[in-house]
Amino acid sequence: MSSELPAPRRIITAHRAEDGVAVVKDDGVIPLLDVAPGLRVAPLWVTNSVPAKDNNLDDDGGLRRATRDSGLISPNGTHCTVTDLAPGAWTAWHRTNSLDHNVIISGTPILKMEDGERITKTGDVVIQRGTMHAWYNPGPDWARWACVLIDAEPAVVNGHALEAAVKEAPSS
C-alpha cells in the first residue's frame, strides 16, 4: 500500500481589531481523523448558518465539528472537509440532505452511483445533489478530495422525499 498523504495545511484569515487590516490568524496542519478502515477526514471549517456569521466570530470553525454532534451536515450551515481514501478502500453507500462540492485533489477515486460509475481525476469537480453514492479508490496511491457540504432540503422524486441514509460499502 502506498504511503498516506500528509495532513492538510489550513490558513485562516481575519482582521486586526484595532485597524481592520487583513491578517493571517492561524496557519497550521489539521490532523486527519480515522472514520472507517482506509477512510480519513479532516474537518477544516463548520458554519452554523447561511449566510455565515463566522467573519465576525473569534472561535475556530474547524473545532466546531469536534465539539458538536452535528454529523456530516450542520443544520442551515456548511461543512468544509478534506477526505482521504486508501488504495482498495470503499466508503459506505450514503445520501445526505446536502449540496456537496467535491474537488478531486489527488488520485483517481471512482464515484459509484446507482446507475454506474465515473472515474475521477485531479481537478475534477463532483456536485452531489442528495444522491445515493459511494467512493472507491482503485489505487495505487491514496486519493484526496476537498468537500464543501451545504445543508439542503431532501431531494424529491415523484412527490417522495429521499431521506438521508447510510448502507454497507458496495462490493467490488
Automatic annotation (TrEMBL):
Signal peptide stretch: none
InterPro entries referenced in this protein's UniProt entry, alphabetically: OryJ/VirC-like, RmlC-like_jellyroll, RmlC_Cupin_sf
SUPFAM superfamilies the record matches: RmlC-like cupins
Domain of life assignment: Eukaryota
Membrane-crossing residue ranges in chain numbering: none
PANTHER family noted in UniProt: CUPIN TYPE-2 DOMAIN-CONTAINING PROTEIN (PTHR36156:SF2), SLR2101 PROTEIN (PTHR36156)
Protein name in UniProt: Cupin 2 conserved barrel domain-containing protein
Native source species: Cerrena zonata
